[in-house]
Amino acid sequence: MRAPPHTSAAGSKTPTIATPAALCAQLETTLFGKGAALRLALAAWLADGHVLIEDLPGVGKTTLARALATAFGFSWQRLQGTPDLLPADITGGLVWDAAKAELRFVPGPIFSEVVLFDELNRANPKTQSALLEAMQERQVSIEGQIHPLPDPFLLIATQNPLSQIGANPLPEGQLDRFAVRLTLGYPPRAAERQLVRHALDCSEAVATPPAHVTRETFLAWRAQVRTVTVREALIDYALDLAAASRRHPALKLGLSPRAVVQLLELSRAWAFLSERTFVLPDDLQAVFRAATAHRLWAKADAAQTPEAVAVELLTTTPVPH
């Protein structure tokens, strides 16, 4: 499906993006060396999942999140994780309306199509937990009243590694609700040079790409992802990987059924980005590490990291033909 021309507030038309692959290519012009992470994040969104970006300060976490949020022209809000951030600062709450002599609900920033929660692990655990219902049910409950969130509702959270001072580890239940965890790392020398040159030459402090894809086009792409065929052998492959994770000697917690479902949904989205209508084992393998490593919990005395276990699971589990 091709996107219609996008018209800015001033009435001028910006170039339109016809396919998800073309969108990725466009965004890569301002996200130097982040092509793989960008594609994984877009796949997560198309699979109706949320994205966690974890890395050291200054490697482009917020830039990547902002570029994705603005590329579709969605309404979006940014939250900064701090120890004094309260749940009501996210969800909103009831306030007294003196004119009507009654309480009325004032929605918080979570009621946006895209929410960028920067440094989520700087927030206190109670505030982190307030996101659980929103992430899973696409709604929030305030004083017994249910308030649905927009569709789509997409959360991008960033966090610094737990070794950084002042960080609070995210609970297992919340981590399991992120479709992928991305680690950007330092860019290659050539990409870093290009990034530095662009920053020095850019007249604005932050370059934000214009919206090229309409909300309707995004929803159409998401609907097409749900029609991508997953054969029974691929389901069994995902179940075999999950079973292997649950009995792995280095792990105290393996992949949940929710993780298996999201892994296959991500595989569908990856196949769609590759312009196919069916999932191959290569698609599942391409997203496996990003989709599972944050859901694998190593034992205290384990010699392997969850990332290493994820790679081992792929190499030791038979692949369907």
From TrEMBL:
Residues 244-304 form the ChlI/MoxR AAA lid domain. It holds the Pfam family AAA_3. InterPro entries: ATPase_AAA-3, CbbQ/NirQ/NorQ/GpvN, ChlI/MoxR_AAA_lid, P-loop_NTPase. Residues 50-179 form the ATPase AAA-3 domain. SUPFAM superfamilies: P-loop containing nucleoside triphosphate hydrolases. It comes from the Bacteria. Signal peptide: none annotated. Gene3D superfamilies: Magnesium chelatase subunit I, C-Terminal domain, P-loop containing nucleotide triphosphate hydrolases. This is AAA family ATPase. It comes from Hydrogenophilus thermoluteolus (Pseudomonas hydrogenothermophila).
